[in-house]
Amino acid sequence: MNRRDFAKLSALAVAWSSLPTSLPMFAQTASAGKPLGFAAIGLGRICDIFMRACQDPSGGAKVTGLVTGHPDSKGEKYASMYNVPKSSIYTYDTFDRIRDNKDVDFVYIGLPNSMHCEYTVRAAEAGKHVLCEKPMAISSAECRKMIDACKQAKVKLMIAYRVQYDPTWNHAIDLIKAGDIGQLESFQGGFYGQMRNDWRLDRKLAGGGSLLDLGIYPLNAIRHILGEEPNAFTAVVATREKGDRFAQVEQSMEWTMKFPSGVIASCGCSYGQTGPGFLNINGETGFLTMDPGFNYGGAVMRGMAHRKPVQQSGLGPMTSQFTLEAQHFTNCIRNNQEPLSDGEEGLKDMIAIEAIYKAAGTPIA
Amino acid sequence: MNRRDFAKLSALAVAWSSLPTSLPMFAQTASAGKPLGFAAIGLGRICDIFMRACQDPSGGAKVTGLVTGHPDSKGEKYASMYNVPKSSIYTYDTFDRIRDNKDVDFVYIGLPNSMHCEYTVRAAEAGKHVLCEKPMAISSAECRKMIDACKQAKVKLMIAYRVQYDPTWNHAIDLIKAGDIGQLESFQGGFYGQMRNDWRLDRKLAGGGSLLDLGIYPLNAIRHILGEEPNAFTAVVATREKGDRFAQVEQSMEWTMKFPSGVIASCGCSYGQTGPGFLNINGETGFLTMDPGFNYGGAVMRGMAHRKPVQQSGLGPMTSQFTLEAQHFTNCIRNNQEPLSDGEEGLKDMIAIEAIYKAAGTPIA
Q1: Does residue A231 sit in helix, strand or coil?
Q2: Which among A12, B55, B97, B168 has the fewest CB atoms less than 10 Å away?
Q3: Nearest chain A residue (CA) to B288
Q4: pLDDT digit string (tens) for A197-225?
Q5: Which of these, B302, B272, B265, lies nearest to B287 by C-alpha position?
Q6: 3-state DSSP assignment of residue A178
Q7: Do B255 and A258 touch (CB under 8 A)?
Q8: Which member of B268, B272, B285 has the closest CB to residue A188?
């Protein structure tokens, strides 16, 4: 899946460069200003994808700095790819000097989860806005520290919930808000994949298992759609595979949640299964199924609203969820607005994640 | 949904009668013998559907008796529709005389759940084989009584799990058994609908809520596919709607299950939502999604097996799950074989249902 998505994204990047004049309307209006410069922190897969997505000018962002433990290999490679001056390549030791780099407006944090807090705080202290990958951190205490540091430094903090910027998801939310499926009643969701040879299987770096990385998708989507916080949980974990792969984090998990309104949900996630990334949204008079719901390629929606079949998919021509996410953040910085998926949003997911692990009998800390 | 399915089934019945010579191969072989006669007990919607389905000769069954509290209205109506002699219309009081009716080989029980046990026992004592709708009864104690009575009387007992006789479901099971999605890891499923003005909302008649009637579909499918019994449960119930409709049974429920092998599942059901009837089957290397999975119209399967998309749907020409179910049961009677979905199968679901209600804090009894 990862390789294919990556290939798809690469293909998109080629398409963008060959068709620069045919960007969709919203992109042309949004890219009116000069792009904001950003430093990518941690040059792994997710940073690579984000930098590629920012080649689309509609994101309003341009890579102007690189932070890596391998300045001579990875650093040089991306510097030449994106015309970043050698002086704007930082290591984790020299990172704080980024304060003096006027070409860097914000940082994009694509580090292992356990490093999100430290680099958010250090970036804020250097006066840079922060776009941090999900999960926000590995504990609610860390999330609060990050929120405080950004408030203190008067910089924006956004958590990279890319799905919140997908037009198909937003169309689904519009239908729900318009009452097209009636009062919301329940959700069923999940996100499953095979993870191998990755820092995500190392508890010290990841903070937990697939719940933090994959289960967070249905969790966040449900919270985002409902605008409520779950307050009762049950959970079950399972690790069928013996051996090293799941020595530190659980293989699979299914859980239930209940919200104060009475809405209920069941969800699951795994690093050791092949399965869909989906969400069913059941209302009084209709339902929506987002499947695939969480893939990079954009959500596919189908269902029944007002007793009629509904269907929508696609991100629009030549764009990606990452571009839309960048566009939202750069607009927030330019217009001094709070991001939709701000630090509080990341904190609320982390509070739920802690409660789910506790319900499973495997608390985070 | 019910009306539409009903209409679809009626349309099929017309199609059968106009194309009697083009039945599929298996139907022609299966209908070699003289059809077995059955008495329909309780002439509600499900009996109506079953009798219509048995107009297809491939079922090998023919309605030869009727049991109803309204012999003069419903009884007469169906008697004239299916050429049942007036002497073969019984009331609940005169039912036991069916013992003397040589044209009745088995009974089809489409009564409210709380009456399944009594009429199974009385039918067995009258020497008739029993095809009983799901849920088998309203407690595991009742299920055991039914199994014992049928064993004692040497009659067959089958629970009408129509989905087990759907060729698309059986194709999915074949793929799984062939290892096409690898070792099974988890399931997510549910079945949701709006129930109004129905005995199913009356606890005395239904024995519980939608878990017994709708939740039993994903539960049975998972147990049937895995060939294992779940031994750990969590559950959450919710009743958002105030008022009479859900005064006696819960509106909605989501639950998790764990099996001795380590396979886990989450499922849900409701009598007060609009939603799909679906099952996701996640394996090590592939997955299958049955959606719709539990509709009368037959299952639709899609997924990934051996890293390639797979897809199948449809019941084959001019047949229904009810016809296939009848065909299985009449073949079992003719060949003195144990039905696939026998009393033990119904009992095992009931044991799980009792455990789920207990986990939800709302035990059945």
Answers
A1: coil
A2: B97
A3: A275
A4: 999 999 999 999 999 999 999 999 999 99
A5: B302
A6: coil
A7: no
A8: B268
